[in-house]
Fold this sequence. Notes:
Strand content: 25-35%
Shape: rod-shaped
Strand order of the largest sheet: 4-5-6-7
Structural class: alpha+beta
Number of strands: 26
Radius of gyration: 47 Å
Largest sheet: 4 strands, antiparallel
Distance between the termini: 118 Å
Amino acid sequence: MQCSISxxxxxEPVFAASTGLVYEKRVLLKALNSNGGLCPVTQKALSxxxxxNVQSNPIVKPRPSTAHxxxxxxxxxxxxxxxxxxxxxQLKHQLENTRQELAHSLYxxxxxxxxxxxxxxxxxxxxxxxxxxxxxxxxxxxxxxMEVESNQTQVLPSEIISKFTxxxxxxxxxxxxxxxxxxxxxxxxxxxxxxxxxxxxKTPLHAVDVHLTGxxxxxxxxxxxxxxxxxxxxxxxxxxxGHTDRVNDVLxxxxxxVYVSASSDKTARVWKDDSEKAVNVxxxxxxxxxxxxxxxxxxxxxxxxxxxxxxxxNFETPSPLINVNSQxxxxxxxxxPDGFLLCIGENNGVIRLWDVRSSKSVIDFxxxxxxxxxxxxxxxxxxxxxxxxxxTVQLWDLRNQKNTNSITVKGxxxxxxxxxxxxxxxxxxxxxxx
Length: 434
């Protein structure tokens, strides 16, 4: 049955009794809506309620002309197969991309969870430490800390900092151009070295320093004993008198006939060859002076004390140029070869590096559990060695601020010293020298 409007075979035929015509229901309803309820064929009024459905067999559309032969059908199947395979490939490609995105997202999520867990752990540890500190802190400690912080604001005069800067530039340039001497002893030669013990001293010795040329040796001991020996002939060059208690540290000026000593009588003293009495006595410490170190420029020195303070001095005046309070009793000191950094050891095993230009602590090293006895920088300025009241010597790398090696010695380590090339490290302990 054909539609009276479109002339095509009707898929859903309906019959109108008032017109006697057969229509395609979909087409007729659309025509009635657009034509004001009039039949587009007869122009008579027609209501959708008058339409009667007509029963008919389903219409089967004829095959296209390309499907009438076996080759055409094979080609049709081949095209459908290709389309199916292309769609399958695209789906697999999308699936693989989705898997990679999911794996990347899971990795990022896992990494984020690990970082969060670490930060939470560090936060909890910090909170716990803060809580313990607050619970054990005394009011007096708070006042002491405020005093320390106020004292740390002392800075050197600008003209002295300028001298330090000039020295730093000069020494840094010289050190970079310096090469290892061809006459440097080999490791095998050093193994054969023998320690000669001088038993002529009448008092126990606690400090020693050798002149740069090796001609003179300054030693300090109990009861203010302070003597300069001539290395050749083992003769006494000078016997200094002035300290009233144990001498803890000494230094020999490399280019001038000047000597400096630190004593438990609360003073550091400057001496010269032309007098047995001190030419200068420091006045800034209230407890044992445990160490002295010469600034590389040669015009100033530093002293440290168990009163938790350190000071920078010239060789002429008793009062220090600056006096800085730290947090714990100080037991060892050494200037960096460039002259800007000052390494100070404390009685709790902590080693602090101070910037003398700002009088502030810049780096802390924690590797010892007992009082630090000695600290020394290598000549190239890259390494720091430290000895404490224990059998372990620590070696630190200043470039990455980490402990690079621990050396175990017999007995208690008392003193450490690098050779001028920075290749060898000597350690003196209660059981000998290694």
